[in-house]
Amino acid sequence: MLLTAQLRWAGHVSRMEDHRLPKITLYGELSSGHRNRGAPKKRYKDSLRKSLGVCHIDCSQWSALAADRAAWRYTVHQAVSSFEASRKEDLREKRRRSKIRAASAATSEPGRTFDCSHCGRACLSRIGLVSHQRACNRRGQLPPLFNLR
């Protein structure tokens, strides 16, 4: 929704008359003065350029495309839909790879599992075993008040 709103607003601003403040602000450049050192502050124009790139809209031609309201609306709708579909597919693929990796680690050869010397629990990594043994040691030691031996 935010991507759609940003691109549609940019289309509105590009179609505005030249004396309007939003258009002056979007297309304006700093005429005098300086900016502080370090990483520059992000501008709306920078965010818009990133959104256009994500949606595969040419950054140099977007204002000409936005001049035709119907064409811009259609382009924005198509670009955002394809971006969302590819994002969802990437997330599905990432989850699938994660599940495959977890399943292969669980069914791997016995040499890849690490067993706890206190309780016998199988851990999939050495760092997991170390973490588990710390917790296992803490559980195994009772405070002096409760030690009835």
Please write out the topology.
Blueprint: H1 2-15, H2 21-27, H3 44-54, H4 62-66, H5 69-106, E1 114-115, E2 122-123, H6 126-140
Antiparallel strand pairs: 1-2
Helix pairs in contact: 1-5
Derived from helix and strand composition plus strand pairing, the structural class reads: mainly alpha
Strand content: under 5%
Compute the number of strand runs: 2
Portion of residues within helices: 55-70%
User: How many strands, what sense, and barrel or not for the largest sheet?
Assistant: 2 strands, antiparallel
The strand line-up of the biggest sheet is 1-2
Describe this protein's structure:
This protein is mainly α and 149 residues long. Among the domains are: 1-26 and 44-83, no CATH class; 110-140. Helices cover 60% and strands 3% of the residues. The chain contains 6 helices and 2 strands. The chain has helices at residues 2-15, 21-27, 44-54, 62-66, 69-106, 126-140, and strands spanning 114-115, 122-123. The chain has a two-stranded antiparallel ribbon with strand order 1-2. Strand 1 (114-115) and strand 2 (122-123) form a beta hairpin. Helix 1 (2-15) packs antiparallel against helix 5 (69-106). The radius of gyration is 29 Å and the shape is elongated. The model is unreliable at 142-149 (pLDDT under 50).
Question: In summary, what is this structure?
Answer:
By secondary structure, the protein is an all-alpha fold.
